[in-house]
Design a protein that fits this description.
This protein has 501 residues and is mainly β. It has two helices and 31 strands. The longest helix has 5 residues.
Length: 501
C-alpha cells in the first residue's frame, strides 16, 4: 500500500437518509431550548414539521396527525407506553445515555411493527470505551448523570440516573390555601455492550422510571395521589458473515398506573397496566444487486384495562377486574431492487396474525412499496404506499395529563385499526452539503378507530362501563411538510413549515 487517504466530515445535528429516516444526534440538544433546565428530546422534536402535541403540557407525540399510541416509541427496540414526567411536561429519556434518536414519519418498510402511525427510536451509546468517564448535568429542578465503566478490553457498562428534588428545595412554594403538593421522579438506565470479535456484538439495555404525586388537603384530611412507572428491557445479538447478517432481539416492557383521590367523604381510584414481551430474529443478505431482509416477530400481551372504584355516602360503583391476554405473530420479507441507474424499488409484505382470548383471531397481509427516482445527483423523488394494522389500542379518557388511559386489545367489539398511507416526497441536497430542502405531501385513511365519548365524571354513576361508551369510526390525515436546512457555516439550523388537517 503506497498511499492512504482519510476523509472526514463534520457530524450534523440532523441527517435525513434518502429513504426518509431522520436521525438526530443527542449531543446537539445542548444547543436547543431547555424546559425547566431540561434538554428534552420530545420537546425538541416539536420543532420539526409534522410533529406536534395536543397542548403545551402534554408530551404525547403526534406524528402527522396520528394519536400517540398509534406511533411506536421505543428504547433500543423495547416499546415505552407512557414516556411522560411531571404530568406531561417532559419525557423519560436521559439525553446523556443515548447517542441519537431516529424519526420515520412515512415510508415504513415491511419490518415496521403493527402500528398505524410513525416510529420514534432512541439508541443508547453502543461503542466500547477504554476509559472511565462521567457526564453530569445539574439544573434547578432535577439532575442527571451517565457513568462510563470499561468492564474489559471488549465490553463497557453505561449507567445513568436522573432524579428531582422539588420537595427538598421548593416544598414551601408547593403549599397554599391549606394544601400541600409533593412530587418526585426517578429514571435509571443501564446499557452493557460487548464485542468479543469482529463478527459478533451483544448489547443489553434496561430502563426503569417512576413518578409519584401527592396532594394533601389539611383542613379535610384528604390525600390525593397518582403513581405510574415504566420498565423496559432489550437484549440484542448481531452476527456478521461474509455473505449475510443475522440479528435477533428479545424485548420486555411493563407499564402500570394508579390514581387515588379522597375528598369530601368519597374515595375514587383508577388503575391500569400493560405488559408486552417479544422476540424477533432477522436475516439480511444480498443476491446480485438486490438487498434482501426477512424476519419474524412474536409478542405476548397481558393488559389490565382501566378499572375504577368509587365509594361514598351516596355512590358505590366498581368495574370488574379484567385481564386480557393476546398473542401477535408476524412474518415479513423486504427487498431493495435497483431499476436502472435512476430508479429504485423497495418492496415488501408483512403477514400478521393476532389472537385474543376468548378465541378471537385476526389475519392481515400488509404490502409496502416505495419507488425512488433520482433524476440528478442532488435531487431525489419518492412515492410510497403502505397498508398498516394495529391490534393494541390506547383510548384516552382525560386530557389533563393524568395517566388514566384505557388500554385494550383487539376483540370482537374493538376491531383492529387499519390505515392506507400514501406519501410523495422530494429532497434536494446541494453538492457541497451546505443546503438541503425537503418537501413531503401525505394522505392517510384510517378505519376502525375507537374513541371514548364520556367524561371521567361519568364513572360516579352506577352500572357504568368504559367499554360501553366507545364510538367507532374512520378518519383522514393529510398535509404538506416543508423544511430548509443549512448544515455548514457559522450559522446553521433549519426552518420548517407544516400545513395539515
Amino acid at each position: 500500500m503506497q498511499e492512504v487517504e482519510v476523509q472526514a466530515r463534520t457530524a450534523r445535528a440532523l441527517e435525513t437518509s434518502p429513504e426518509g429516516r431522520l436521525y438526530w444526534r443527542m449531543e446537539s440538544l445542548a444547543d436547543m431550548p431547555h424546559v425547566l433546565g431540561n434538554a428534552d428530546p420530545l420537546r425538541a422534536l416539536q420543532l420539526l414539521p409534522g410533529v406536534a402535541t395536543n397542548n403545551d403540557y402534554a408530551s404525547g407525540i403526534h406524528i402527522q396527525g396520528c394519536a400517540p399510541a398509534q406511533s411506536l416509541l421505543e428504547m433500543d427496540g423495547a416499546p415505552v407506553f407512557n414516556a411522560a414526567h411531571l404530568l406531561g411536561l417532559f419525557s423519560v429519556f436521559t439525553t446523556s445515555h443515548f447517542r441519537g434518536m431516529a424519526l420515520v414519519k412515512n415510508c415504513h418498510d415491511a419490518s415496521f411493527a403493527n402500528r398505524t402511525g410513525g416510529r420514534l427510536s432512541f439508541y443508547p451509546i453502543d461503542s466500547v470505551a477504554h476509559a472511565v468517564h462521567l457526564n453530569a448535568t445539574v439544573s434547578f429542578m432535577e439532575s442527571e448523570g451517565t457513568l462510563t465503566l470499561p468492564a474489559s478490553r471488549h465490553s463497557t457498562l453505561y449507567l445513568s440516573a436522573r432524579g428531582s428534588y422539588l420537595n427538598l428545595l421548593y416544598g414551601g412554594l408547593l403549599e397554599f390555601d391549606g394544601m400541600a403538593m409533593r412530587y418526585g421522579l426517578q429514571d435509571y438506565n443501564l446499557t452493557f455492550v460487548s464485542q468479543p470479535g469482529t463478527r459478533d456484538k451483544l448489547r443489553m439495555s434496561l430502563y426503569h422510571g417512576r413518578d409519584h404525586t401527592r396532594l394533601l388537603q389539611q383542613d379535610f384530611q384528604d390525600q390525593n395521589r397518582a403513581d405510574w412507572q415504566n420498565t423496559a428491557a432489550a437484549l440484542h445479538h448481531e452476527h456478521h458473515s461474509p455473505s449475510s447478517t443475522f440479528r435477533q432481539k428479545a424485548t420486555f416492557s411493563h407499564y402500570r398506573s394508579n390514581v387515588d383521590m379522597k375528598t369530601g367523604g368519597m374515595d375514587f381510584s383508577l388503575a391500569s397496566a400493560i405488559l408486552q414481551a417479544g422476540y424477533a430474529p432477522e436475516w439480511e443478505w444480498t443476491t446480485g444487486d438486490v438487498l434482501w431482509r426477512a424476519g419474524t416477530d412474536y409478542h405476548y400481551y397481558r393488559v389490565k384495562p382501566m378499572t375504577f372504584h368509587v365509594t361514598g355516602a351516596a355512590v358505590r360503583n366498581s368495574s370488574p377486574v379484567l385481564t386480557e391476554q393476546a398473542h401477535e405473530a408476524s412474518a415479513y420479507v423486504q427487498s431493495r431492487i435497483p431499476l436502472g441507474q435512476k430508479w429504485q424499488a423497495d418492496a415488501g409484505i408483512r403477514l400478521s396474525y393476532f389472537h385474543s382470548r376468548p378465541g378471537k383471531g385476526f389475519f392481515l397481509p400488509a404490502p409496502r412499496l416505495t419507488l425512488r427516482f433520482d433524476p440528478a445527483p442532488a435531487h431525489s423523488l419518492s412515492l410510497h404506499y403502505g397498508l398498516y394494522a394495529q391490534y393494541l389500542h390506547q383510548i384516552p379518557v382525560s386530557n389533563g395529563g393524568l395517566p388514566v388511559d384505557y388500554w385494550t386489545v383487539s376483540s370482537g367489539d374493538t376491531q383492529p385499526g387499519q390505515a392506507h398511507s400514501l406519501a410523495l416526497s422530494y429532497r434536494y441536497a446541494h453538492p457541497s452539503g451546505t443546503w438541503e430542502f425537503e418537501a413531503e405531501a401525505y394522505y392517510k385513511h384510517l378505519t376502525r378507530q375507537h374513541e371514548y365519548y364520556g367524561s371521567i365524571l361519568n364513572m360516579l354513576s352506577g352500572a357504568y362501563s368504559v367499554a360501553q361508551n366507545l364510538v367507532h369510526g374512520k378518519g383522514r390525515n393529510y398535509g404538506l411538510n416543508l423544511m430548509l436546512k443549512k448544515n455548514r457555516g457559522r450559522l446553521t439550523g433549519w426552518i420548517g413549515y407544516a400545513l395539515s388537517r
